[in-house]
Amino acid sequence: MKLVLLTDFGSTYTKLTLVDLDNESVISTAQSTTTVSTNIIDGYRKAYDDLEIPDEIVEKLACSSAAGGLVVTAIGLVKKLTVEAAKRAALGAGAKVEYAYSNFLTVDEVEEIKTSDTDIILLAGGTDGGNSDSILHNAKMLAEAKIKVPVVLAGNKQTLNEIENMFLSNNIYYEKAENVMPEINKLNVESAKEVIRKIFIEKITLAKGIKQAEELVDNVIMPTPAAVLYGLTILSQGTKNQRGIGDLLCIDIGGATTDIHSIGLGLPSKAGVVFQGLEEPLSKRTVEGDLGMRYSANAMFESVGSLAFEKYGITDVEKQITFRRSNTEYIPTDDDEIAFDKAMASICVDEAMSRHVGKVENVYSPMGMMYLQTGKDLSDVKYIIGTGGVVVNSDGVIDKSLFNKEKITELRPSKSEIVIDKMYVLSSLSLLSVRHPEKALRMMKKYLLQEK
To answer: Has residue 253 got a pLDDT over 70?
Structure first.
């Protein structure tokens, strides 16, 4: 029996999963409230004491989204191009992008960055050999402001030497990465993702008190969302020795955000449709900070309005929303309260899907009618995986991600099989896939697909 302990230091709960690699099975699970405000080890030990451990643990792996997760500020030249490329790099690295700036930074914007809760600044701008004015201006503004958080340089490579001199003379901590958009509409995010992960391990875990947990685990590998995206990619694409299950979506509804992951190229699937705009990554993650069940309840209501609830037969919305925002640990028990939570979750899925999925529009050209696609075509996705408490406890929520005639221009899935993560193993087995991809893939197939 070869036991591996997988730990997820979450923003609310610290979750432990014990697996047997030899038998490729989940042995035991436990969780406790994350105690990052005092000592993160306290919550870990409490959950550890609840585990059933039949043998010696030979390996301990961990990921974390505690202390607010990883917050990145993205800065670029054009909002729809280099800023969007920087955002995708940050999201793919498991971060939340709560601040994004385009073109030339102002004094007020720099002050906003300095007083924010950002952990890393991702500085992009210009294709290689292209515009350099913007990124040089923004680097100078950050340097003169004596920015204290790490900066990732991921823009026009011809500007690197000049920016490095600025940063060195002003004691700015920085790391270099390849340009996130070396050519127009061409993405190159892997290098920036790896640099963000490196800074997370070396700097951010220490600043947030998570580093002290390393005496109990081998190391903190990556932010939890990055681990999940990695695991989903393995599940979809497979390994050298084992087939994956094909293109998939994963929808995770939480108290603060609704996250959607899509694995697949998303190229046009219908004849006569032409792709335009910024290319899409194989593994894409979007995070909607205004679509959450508790912490973001007020923002969710402001985004969708009361009319969104009326189709579910709910009219007294504001009172319920205010209550949930003020009682973030609330779990409904009576039928009306459960129905309200289900309506909230359904709206979150529907709205988040509209933002994640690609769209098609018809345009007239000298050659006649043309159809242009922006974003991913997910109409042929094979599986949709749903995870999160409200998803597990409410039937039909994930159905709201499917194609519907009210949003006919959106390239949503139409024939997907919906799978629910009833055992809450997705994050832990995704973490396992970083070190043991073959075994993790077989276990994800076993524990996720058998729960169809």
So the answer is: yes
Q: Are 141 and 167 in contact (CB under 8 A)?
A: no
Residue 373, pLDDT above cutoff 90: yes
Confidence (pTM): 0.86
Q: Which of 8-17, 108-117, 318-327, 407-416 has the least mean pLDDT?
A: 8-17
- Computed on alpha carbons and rounded to an integer, the radius of gyration of the chain in Å comes to 22
Task: Specify the 3-state DSSP secondary structure of 447.
Answer: helix
- Side chain identity at 186, as an amino acid letter? K
Q: Of 150-164, 225-239, 243-257, 365-379, where does mean pLDDT reach its minimum?
A: 365-379
Residues of 198-226 as b/e, b for ≥16 C-beta within 10 angstroms? bbbbebbbeebbbbebeeebeebbbbbbb
Q: Tell me which amino acid residue 54 is.
A: P
Task: For the chain, give the longest Cα–Cα distance.
Answer: 72
pLDDT band, very low/low/confident/very high, at 66 (cuts 50, 70, 90): low
Is residue 286 a contact partner of residue 260, using CB atoms and an 8 Å limit? yes
Domains of the chain: 1-67+213-217 (3.30.420.40), 71-203 (3.40.50.261), 248-420 (no CATH)
Pairing, β 151-153 against β 383-387: unpaired
DSSP secondary structure code for residue 234 in this structure = H
Average pLDDT over residues 113-134: 94
- Give the total residue count for the chain: 452
Half-sphere exposure of 444 (CA within 13 A, CB side): 29
Q: Dihedral angle at the C-alpha atoms of 177, 179, 180, 183, nearest 10 degrees? A: -160
pLDDT at 67 over 60: no
DSSP state of 81: I
What average pLDDT does the segment 306-311 reach?
A: 93
Tokens of 388: 């999160």
Q: Could you tell me how many helices (H) and strands (E) the chain has, helices first?
A: 15, 18
d(CA 124, CA 179): 7
In angstroms, rounded to a whole number, what is the distance separating the alpha carbons of residues 55 and 58?
Answer: 9
What token pair was written down for 177? Answer: 């990465």
The pLDDT value given to residue 452: 37
Residue in 396, 399, 430 with CA at minimum distance from that of residue 414: 399
